[in-house]
Design goal:
This is RNA methyltransferase. It comes from Klenkia terrae. The protein is α/β, with parallel strands linked by helices. It folds into 2 domains: 3-98, 2-Layer Sandwich (60s Ribosomal Protein L30, Chain: A); 106-259, SPOUT methyltransferase, trefoil knot domain (Alpha/beta knot, 3-Layer(aba) Sandwich). Helix content is 29%, strand content 19%. The chain has 10 helices and 12 strands. It has helices at 19-22, 40-49, 60-64, 79-86, 106-112, 125-137, 155-160, 179-185, 226-230, 249-259; strands spanning 3-4, 35-38, 53-58, 74-76, 94-98, 115-120, 142-145, 170-172, 189-193, 200-201, 213-218, 234-237. The strands form 2 sheets. Strands 8-7-6-11-9-12-10 form a 7-stranded parallel β-sheet, with helices on both faces. It has a 5-stranded mixed β-sheet with strand order 1-4-3-5-2. Strand 3 (53-58), helix 3 (60-64) and strand 4 (74-76) form a beta-alpha-beta unit. Helix 6 (125-137) packs parallel to helix 10 (249-259). The model is unreliable at 24-28 (pLDDT under 50).
């Protein structure tokens, strides 16, 4: 039975204090602290992962919709108290906190995967979340992130992914772009996505001819760095109508994931 919370500053729900303030913290907090998940669907997905739960918090009706494992602390409050706790109006009605997934090794991920996405310089949490959701839906086996990428387990990333990021192996690379040599040595064709008109048409890359593919995506605006572009096997573009030079990175990722299945 969930315990009642009447004080927004109650220490029992400390994992959820001032979540909105976290949106403005500098990057020093990347990849640390608990995972916070919003909404019944995403929380249900979290429960299926087997990650160690820390707490559940929300309004009574949304908590009642969940099959809460025995021993997991659960707390309920009215919507105003919940909103004051977290620092914004919560429309999804429930949150959960959990310990972070234990990161797999790069070697283990490369052995087990056929399609991977490699992200460079993506500092927008929502783009990472959207890419993670598309990756799970469209047959990508893992995400590799360069050291400058935003935290994939930050609240907004997980929210936009609908919790799917929690089911996808994610590796934070340490040697960049040196780790690309390891990816290529494992038999992956490395494909850099670019709007450059001199790049090959993405549709010309037959997945049958390239059974193991690593798709590289850079941040919107700057794209992939010159050093990274020089280290890949193929530069590919998504063909577009005249007058449109590019898609947002999340949309481009989904198109490329589908093409390279």
């Amino acid at each position: 039975m969930p315990e009642l919370i009447t004080d927004p500053r109650d220490p029992r729900v400390a994992d959820f204090h001032d979540l909105h303030a976290g949106d403005r913290r500098p990057g020093t907090e990347r990849r640390s602290g608990p995972v916070v998940v919003e909404g019944v669907t995403a929380v249900e997905r979290l429960l299926e992962t087997g990650l160690q739960l820390r707490a559940l918090y929300g309004v009574a009706g949304r908590l009642a919709a969940l099959d809460i494992p025995a021993g997991v602390p659960a707390y309920e409050a009215d919507k105003w108290v919940v909103s004051e706790t977290i620092g914004f109006r919560l429309t999804r009605g429930v949150l959960a906190s959990a310990e972070r997934p234990v990161p797999p090794s790069l070697a283990d991920v490369l052995v087990r995967s056929r399609r991977i996405a490699v992200l460079e310089g993506l500092n927008d949490h929502e783009n990472i979340g959207s890419i993670g959701r598309s990756a799970v839906a469209l047959g990508v086996d893992a995400l590799l992130l360069d050291p400058s990428c935003a935290d994939p387990y930050y609240r907004r990333s997980v929210r936009v992914s609908m919790g799917h990021l929690l089911t996808l192996p994610v590796v934070a690379l340490e040697d960049w772009p040196g780790d690309l040599a390891t990816v290529r040595a494992a038999g992956f064709t490395t494909v850099a996505l670019t709007p450059d008109p001199g790049a090959v048409d993405l549709r010309s890359l037959d997945p049958v001819d390239h059974p193991r593919t690593a798709l590289l995506l850079g941040a919107e605006g700057p794209g992939l760095t010159e050093g990274t572009m020089a280290a890949v096997d193929v530069r590919a573009r998504i063909p577009m109508r005249s007058g449109v030079d590019s898609l947002g990175v999340a949309a481009a990722a989904a198109v490329a994931f589908a093409q390279l299945r």
